[in-house]
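Ticket #4471: structure output looks truncated?

Reporter: J.K.
Steps to reproduce: submitted the chain below (230 residues) through the standard prediction queue, then opened the result file.
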Amino acid sequence: MNDEQNVDFSLLPGKCSDLKPQKKRTNRTSIFVGGQFLCGAETKAVEQCEIAKDSWVDETLIRQLLALDERFRFQEQCYRLLARRAYCRRELHQRGQQKGFSEDAIVEILDRFEDNGWIDDQAFALNYAEVYFNRKKWGPEKIRAGLVQKGISKEDISYALEQLDDTDAQLNSMMDVVGKHRNRLLRNNDTQKQKHKLVDLLRRKGYHPEVIFRNLDHLIQHLTDETTDT
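Returned output as attached by the reporter:
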């Protein structure tokens, strides 16, 4: 999302006749050549390109300015997003694409953020897995699918799911799911149909069939126990 379409390159080359801070966006500077507006850019980009009043500017310099300005703007967008919550790399990449930033700018800034540890897909995957397992009661398979959709690597997904590889924790989570849906599961008095509904519910929640069937008797007992909280 550079602003080349808003630049009157016919004014170039020429002498910078004035630099003015923009009123609404005070972090940006308007550049004038021959008394006419040429373009606007982040003030720090203007300074980095060493553009000053009475300095000579040409098309090559302005294109460098626009490229640098684009990187600063995408960087600021990433800062704002990350201040709200953690994002994985693909999410930020998609946000950049949606805003029209160039692929070169997106990749360069995300590489820098990754190098500095400001985005960390492994940490993101671990947090995602813990949150959806503990709060939403999702099983490992549903968590895996969610992480794949977010572009997390197989290695990082495996690492996150390994931290959930606790038989007792999965059983307790499945019991919570069963307790929450107890009334619906018990609408039919046929035990076999109850089992089918229970297994189907837990599969949709993302629990592996082996884990479900290994604990099926315990889950059925929990389901039919009149003292179970609903």
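Triage note (M.O.): checked the attachment and the full token line is present. The chain has three domains: 4-115, 121-161, 167-224.
Status: closed, working as intended.
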